[in-house]
Structures are given as C-alpha cells and as structure tokens.
C-alpha cells in the first residue's frame, strides 16, 4: 500500500450517534459512506474502544457536548489507508492517537498548551458536522486528522491494555509536567 492508496474496498462505515439527552432517541446507529481522505489524514478501523468517564458524564447530563455526535476518544485502531507520505505507517499497523488535534500555531500552542488551542478539535466531543462525521471511537472507523499525533502500539501490549492509554496517560503526563511548575499553590490530581 502506498501512502495515498485509498482503494480499500470500503465504502461504508457504521457509527453510534449520540443525539442528546432530550432527543426522542438518545442513541441511533447509522451506516453511512466513508469520506475520501484529505492530505495528511488516516483512515483507521476501530479494534477496541473503551469508555471514559467523560462519556458517562455526557450521557448522564453532567457534561454538555454538542450534538449530534459520535462519542468516544479512547481506542486501539488499525490503519486501513492514509495520506501521510512522510510517515512509515502501513496497512494493519495498530495505533493509538492523541485525543485532540491542535494547530500548533496559536498563542496557546506556542506556549505548550495545545489542549487550550484556539482551533482545538477533540475526538469524541465534536458535532458530526465538524470534520468527517467519523470523529469518535464508537464507530467502525475514524478519520484521524492531519495534525493528530499517532503512536504505533507494540505487539506485546494487548488491545485491552492500550485502549484507554491515550486519555489516561495523556492526563497523567500533563499533570506531571505542569504540577512541579506551580509555586505557592496547590494542585489536586485525581
């Protein structure tokens, strides 16, 4: 497979759509065409998705997210095709990915605060119309955006161990990086 090979034989994907708490049908399942990849994007198949507490908070009304959306940002995925000519990704690679895509150009990104990016895109927290429509892990496939960091998962690590790592490890690493910088203050890490 070359980086630009999109002849995957796949034309349809399935997604579980969260329609909102006050909808007649809170969740619906849709089979819909997979979009063509833009430069820098990766089409991946979801191997295993896990449930983050932020998803639970969303469906119980403790957190408000735009709807309709595809929830879920913790997963192990498998490369189907990509348009990242500079990468060494091949079909079948198992990956995890950063839960957010940032511009790396705005004031916040330049200060190392990508999670506060002025153009922040968060997987599993975006409306269907914001991006490909395959934005969350509770779907058969995800389109990973151009600026999203991906990490290959070694074969020694199971899908069950790796699925929550992009959120839990990212949260832990952020705390470890920023807590020591707090002077004359307190931090609570849960």
UniProtKB/TrEMBL annotation:
One of its GO terms (molecular function) is alcohol dehydrogenase (NAD+) activity. Coiled coil: none annotated. Keywords: Metal-binding, NAD, Oxidoreductase, Zinc. Its cofactor is Zn(2+). Pfam families: ADH_N. The keyword Repressor does not apply. The keyword GTP-binding does not apply. Residues 39-154 form the Alcohol dehydrogenase-like N-terminal domain. GO terms for cellular component: cytoplasm. This is Alcohol dehydrogenase-like N-terminal domain-containing protein.
